[in-house]
Amino acid sequence: MELNRSESCPSGLSVAGSSSASVTTLGDLPHYFDADELEQFSGQLANDPIQSHMFPSSSSIKQEPGFSSVMSLVTETTTYTSPSSSAVYSSAGALKNEPQSPTASSSTSSLPTHCDKKSLSCKDEGNIQAAADSNSQKQFVPCKVCGDRASGFHYGVTSCEGCKGFFRRSIQKQIEYRCLRDGKCMVIRLNRNRCQYCRFKKCLAVGMSRDSVRYGRVPKRSKSQDDQSVSSSDPNFDQSAIENKQLAIYDIILSISQAHHANCGVTEDKLKNLQRKASTLMQKIPIPSVPVQFTDEELEAQKLSMWHCLAGLITPAIHSVVEFAKRVSGFVELSQDDQLILIKTGFFEVWLTRMARMFNKVENHFTFEDGSVISKEELAVVFSPDFVNCMFEIAQSFNHLNLNDTEIGLFCAIVLATPDRRGLEDSKAVELIQDRLIEALKLQICRNHSTEENLFGTTIVKLPQLRTLGVQHNEILEWYRLQWHRIRLPPLFSEIFDICKHEDDV
Question: Is the pLDDT score of 42 beyond 70?
């Protein structure tokens, strides 16, 4: 599969400047960045004051059909191509638009005309000067994303209009960005349009809420604290040290969120356009006019036929789960054998977690990604009544947690990176991956569900429940594995559940 992917600046964010820009010095940069950041950015400008950067346009994924094994999906490489378009950015041009703070002279010149300035004592002049400096400092509140002048409290943090609009468009249009510099670009006012991936990551890192874009305003829980800290703190206060401690976690949250939205067909936004249609796993057979009694062999054949239809509905999800797994941080660094073990043993649990919102306990039916609605009774024929009841129960309890898509994606990644799967070569590496994901989920839940103290613990408790259901599902499959020669299943489905393939597929 080849992904032709490009990223472009959103409308209104293109940047341009003149090649006759003056040389930028440290004194020209905003005063609220620390010396290390200023030195870094000054060096970038001195070495290449006018740069052309690649901005890929909106991503489009082209999937090639024909994958017949999980191994081919795992080992298949993904390439990214960018168009040859470029944009010229002038740092000096941006500096010319730097808003100037009111000076002491302008403040003193605004005194009433009948007041004799010469009659003012040195003490009075000093008080006026101090008041002017204090007002100047309080008037400027920096954007936590890029450092520009903040226009207000947007999506949970003080930010400028540019970053506010950029974050809103990124969420509403579900834009997926890529960084050409390993996600380590510095985001400040002068270069905030250069790397959209790092800018979006910074938005999340400083606390902008994805849900506030979708559901509207959030309580101004920390506006006064932010303003006070900005106005009373040292102008050279370095916030980057604090932010960098969480950037790695926020990077995980961002990558998992994008991977889940790109590879899950039942996200909130996609369900709005889902067309549901009544369906069945049973074949149409003529109904005799007189009662008949089917033989055990005929009943087994009907059960196998229903399972075959169910396999066809589940198989498309295998490809999406594999693609999701490849984008979990640290997963592709594992050996191919460990990757296959994690995907094959964890697929059913991940699939059930993603599809939990599709279980309808009131009407007793289940909806697949393509909109096919299957009754609970037919699922009970394929599996067993008790097992299907457990599926509906755990799905309902998971839905009661009210997790958003990002949190569901993080939980699915935690399920996938279970370190005690049988046969793993490097369980320690898998455990490290899962620990980072658990920390990311905890941070995300604490940020979005601050009033629900026990939500994180209640969510983690679902892991052993899913594991138990996965074991029961594997036991049910034992009978179907013995019937492999009687039915031809999709090759991916056969491999993911360790079922012998039909001789025509070998």
Answer: no
- Three-class SS state of 360: strand
Q: Which residue has the higher pLDDT, 120 or 392?
A: 392
User: Do the beta carbons of residue 160 and residue 148 sit within 8 Å?
Assistant: yes
d(CA 233, CA 250): 26
Q: Is the pTM of the predicted complex or chain greater than 0.90?
A: no
pLDDT at residue number 152: 87
Q: What is the 3-state secondary structure (H, E, C) of 369-408?
A: CCCEEEEHHHHHHHCCHHHHHHHHHHHHHHHCCCCCHHHH
- Sequence-distant (6+) residues with CB within 8 A of 220 are 153
What does DSSP say about strands 372-375 and 277-278: parallel, antiparallel, or unpaired? parallel
Question: Which candidate, 37, 5, 12, places its Cα nearest to that of 193?
Answer: 12
Who contacts 143 (Cβ-Cβ below 8 Å, separation ≥6)?
Answer: 149, 150, 158, 159, 160, 162, 163, 189
Tell me the C-alpha distance between 231 and 103, whole Å.
17
List, in order of start, the domains of the chain with CATH numbers.
2-91+133-238 (3.30.50.10), 253-283+296-496 (1.10.565.10)
Query: What is the pLDDT, as a whole number, of residue 290?
Result: 66
pLDDT score of 77: 58
